[in-house]
Design goal:
Keywords: Membrane, Transmembrane, Transmembrane helix. By secondary structure, the protein is an alpha/beta fold. 41% of the residues lie in helices and 13% in strands. The chain has helices spanning 2-10, 15-46, 96-100, 110-117, 160-167, 184-190, 224-234, 252-255, 266-274, 287-294, 313-341, 347-358, 364-382, 406-422, 450-472, 484-490, and strands at 52-58, 77-81, 121-126, 173-178, 193-196, 216-221, 247-251, 283-285, 386-391, 425-434, 437-445.
Length: 503
């Protein structure tokens, strides 16, 4: 600008100079106005924490006249991941090239219609990791939804926008999908409830597949009663079921993977159930030793696994089988489209896709055999009243744009593989904070026991939060997470000694 003024002073009588000056000043004004508008647009976008891909309203079905009962979800709002079909809208799968090359849906997904029929209003589609790959929630094309609790950290994925919409109180609940943790991880990172139902328990008609043997429709809520009400609708559960006793089973070895002190997880849960009726004394188990003995098909996957701390090799083998199964089915589902379209993908998603497409899968039957044996093993362990207690994820949310390390991914998948490969139902429950990061723990029970698990969360939640408050105000206890001897001393002799195979 100063050069322009000097030019005017020197050549004040030259009309061409005044034209150049005018153009320069106008250009500066245009640039400034463009920047202002972009900044305003970003502010408007971030008013919804960047959670939404598309805003619209799907009006719920009308309430039937009396004496009909009140619709169970009347007055509630929800959002859906950009993986669910909505009539008249193109399903984007988190990627603009997918959206560009596919027609608008001619029907709405069965699960969305069920929610509308029961009184809930849908208010839009949410951002997701491309093609439902990834656990950070970052999207190269549409931006990363802002974690309301930790804006500088990732929200978790792939159902990132749905989790953020709930955590930011933009909706009462939201739908996501969970393949290898896509509901459980964002629920944990955003400090809300996240439910992954038993595999196949909720219809996937009208939902794009990533890996159909692992995919499950899940949902988020802040309130356990809303989580429960949505579950009753989607799972078509009976309103009343006879009350059963409950037996918590702590996977001591898996808590050694977590960076959160046991005082804020195991201790909180143990104290919470002391005050509740119908809960037997907790049991303790070395879960990796159990699955090593009861899932014999895992032996073929040990050679592909890397070493995790504390010798969790059996769980890493399970994780390796899970990732191989996901990649095999993803390749089967989408290889043709990927080769035809050559879509633009973010770097981490691109690596996952290339690994899936370029691999050859010679022993596919063993992947499905592990899954079958894992389901039988968890049923044997938990019987009719058992609930396995594990950390949802081992590490706190990563910083934005840092990318996930191999270690982070391996530690996450090791824990997430339990429910994904067994098909069991799992719920992630927030337990306050540690070092400024959200804490969560997960309850897992056998395939088909979804109502039992939802009832348990509703029953325990208030007592859990009371204990969380007390733990946050108490002096810290010695951290025994890494002390195997202390863990052994905690165990009750309820399971016979288990011998691991030579590996």
């Amino acid at each position: 600008m100063s050069k322009t003024l000097n030019l005017i002073k020197t050549n004040a009588s030259n009309p061409k100079v005044w034209i150049v000056a005018g153009i320069t000043v106008a250009g500066i004004i245009v640039v400034a106005e463009t920047r202002r508008r972009r900044k305003k647009a970003m502010i408007i976008k971030r008013e919804d924490f960047g959670a939404f891909m598309e805003r619209f309203e799907l009006i719920p079905f009308p309430q039937p006249p009396p004496p009909a009962a009140k619709l169970p979800l009347l007055g509630l709002t929800f959002a859906i991941k950009d993986i669910f079909d909505v009539k008249g809208h193109a399903t984007g799968f988190g990627n603009p090239d997918w959206q560009r090359t596919h027609e608008v849906a001619d029907k709405t997904a069965v699960v969305v219609t069920a929610l509308l029929k029961n009184g809930a209003k849908c208010v839009g589609k949410t951002v997701m990791d491309e093609l439902a790959f990834g656990i950070t929630g970052e999207n190269k094309h549409y931006g990363t939804p802002t974690n309301p609790n930790m804006p500088s950290n990732v929200p978790g994925g792939s159902s990132s926008g749905s989790a953020v919409a709930v955590a930011a109180e933009l909706v009462d609940f939201a739908l996501g999908t969970d393949t290898i943790g896509c509901v459980r991880v964002p629920a944990s990172f955003c400090g809300i409830l996240g439910f992954r139902p038993s595999h196949g328990a909720v219809s996937t008609i009208g939902v794009l597949p990533n890996s159909q043997s692992l995919d499950a429709i899940g949902w988020f809520a802040r309130d356990p009663s809303i989580l429960h009400r949505v579950g009753n609708v989607l799972l078509q559960l009976k309103a009343v079921e006879p009350r059963r006793g409950r037996h918590l089973v702590f996977a001591d070895d898996l808590f050694q993977l977590s960076k959160v002190p046991k005082q804020k997880t195991v201790h909180v849960i143990s104290k919470a159930v002391e005050k509740l009726s119908g809960y037997q004394l907790p049991k303790h188990v070395n879960f990796c030793q159990f699955i090593a003995s009861n899932v014999p098909s895992l032996k073929g996957f040990f050679q592909h696994s890397t070493n995790l701390q504390n010798g969790i090799s059996a769980l890493q083998a399970l994780s390796s089988a899970m990732v191989s199964l996901q990649r095999y089915e993803f390749k089967t589902n989408h290889e043709e489209w990927l080769k035809d379209v050559k879509p633009r993908l973010g770097p981490e998603v691109s690596r996952c896709v290339l690994a899936a497409i370029n691999n050859t899968y010679e022993n596919v039957k063993s992947l499905y055999k592990v899954r079958t044996e894992m389901r039988a093993a968890t049923q044997s362990l938990l019987k009719d009243d058992g609930i396995l207690v594990i950390p949802t994820i081992a590490d706190p949310p990563l910083k934005l744009k840092k990318g996930s390390s191999t270690e982070f991914h391996d530690r996450a998948c090791a824990l997430l593989s339990v429910a994904s490969m067994s098909g069991c139902c799992q719920v992630s429950v927030p337990l306050g904070e540690h070092d400024g990061c959200p804490i969560s723990v997960s309850f897992v029970t056998y395939h088909g026991a979804d109502k039992f698990l939802l009832d348990t969360v509703l029953d325990m939640y208030a007592s859990l939060q009371e204990q969380v408050s007390m733990a946050s105000n108490s002096a810290p206890l010695p951290d025994l997470n890494g002390n195997m001897d202390a863990s052994e001393l905690l165990k009750e002799k309820v399971f016979p000694p288990l011998t691991s195979p030579n590996i």
